[in-house]
Specification:
This protein is of the alpha+beta class. Helices cover 34% and strands 23% of the residues. The longest helix has 18 residues.
């Protein structure tokens, strides 16, 4: 690796990191409310009205096309890993809809006067590697000169019309599962503060580089009622999207939420991303916490986070066995409930 790449700290060139760069849920809602309403298209199965992970269009009555885009600023210093994580995160939206990715194109913004072009080449190489792992081509893209490095993908996928998984179709009594631990926002904030330990970064890196391919396997299962991926809005924000779209509430058990072992350490060091407070300011009034400090976990912005899955409780054993066969050992973190009056989500 050339010296100009090996000695570079990409995170020093960005004001945010990964999905923590996202606009807060409240700001995004304000933007969408002030824009013109989209005209109706009869073949649009999923638009932005339910804040789902991707748009879905009925192509011919049998097959639906899934379209999504996701990009952000560096969350790690290594350019190859940055590209790979950004690609993994973008492709996840296809899996969250129960789909199979078929092609991707790249989105690149680069401060060419600050960072050598060769570094951008490493970013693209990382993105291309993940696309290859997902079985798709990185078939082109668009680049601009930008003040901060930005990378991501626009991804197209497909799914049978009858098997589209949405975030608005949960039912009271459904068990909730999360397939990756929380805490990415904290450890990457610790990295920017030069407080992160190498072994913690390695664990987080491995998680962020793990494709959510399991979503593809869930498309044909009618007892899987709803899926979304947990990214920049944190567990609380994306669970609220399920609850609001499905007209349900949720009961969550804090001790069952998977979190990385390093989370308490970085909470004690004050390594909370700015996105945590923005998230909580936007939606904290909708969530009741037994322990007020719990917001530091459930509002932590994730990058390339896991899938949040609502499952008919009668199929608990079958579902858990299916995931275990693919190397995912999970337990329910809670369940969907009838919509309460005071708070949509309760965390005990």
């Amino acid at each position: 690796m050339a010296p100009e790449i090996a000695n570079l700290r990409l995170t020093e060139y960005s004001h945010g990191a990964g999905c923590g760069c996202k606009l807060s849920p409240g700001v995004l809602s304000d933007i969408l409310q002030t824009s013109d309403a989209a005209p109706a298209f009869t073949n649009l199965l999923v638009g932005n009205d339910t804040k789902d992970d991707a748009a879905v269009v009925d192509l011919d009555g049998s097959t639906a096309i899934i379209s999504t885009t996701d990009f952000f600023m560096p969350i790690v210093d290594d350019p190859f890993d940055f590209g790979a994580i950004a690609a993994t995160n973008a492709i996840s939206d296809i899996y969250a809809m129960g789909g199979t990715p078929i092609v991707a194109i790249a989105i690149l913004g680069w401060p060419i006067d600050k960072i050598p072009a060769a570094v951008a080449g490493e970013v693209l190489r990382g993105g291309r590697k993940v696309c290859h792992d997902a079985g798709i081509a990185l078939a082109g893209g668009h680049s601009i000169d930008a003040p901060e490095p930005i990378f991501g993908l626009a991804v197209t996928g497909r799914v049978p019309v009858t098997q589209v998984k949405k975030n608005c179709t949960g039912q009271p009594g459904d068990l909730l599962y999360l397939t990756k631990p929380l805490g990415i926002g904290m450890v990457t904030t610790a990295q920017k503060k030069k407080l992160a330990e190498d072994q913690d970064l390695a664990i987080a890196r491995q998680s962020m580089l793990t494709l959510n391919k399991i979503g593809q396997s869930l498309a044909g299962l009618p007892y899987v009622h709803a899926i979304t991926d947990v990214t920049g809005f944190g567990l609380g924000g994306h669970l609220l999207e399920i609850c609001e779209g499905s007209n349900t509430g949720a009961q969550i058990h804090l001790d069952r939420i998977p979190v990385f072992d390093f989370v308490p350490k970085y909470i004690a060091l004050g390594c909370l991303p700015g996105g945590t407070n923005r998230n909580w300011t936007s939606y904290g009034h909708k969530i009741a916490l037994r322990d007020p400090d719990t917001y530091k976990i459930i509002a932590d912005p994730q990058t390339s986070g896991g899938l949040l899955i609502a499952v008919n409780s009668q199929y608990k054993s079958e579902f858990e066995s299916l995931l275990a066969a693919q190397g995912l050992v999970v337990q329910p973190i809670g369940m969907l409930t009838t919509q309460p009056h005071d708070h949509l989500i309760e965390v005990d």
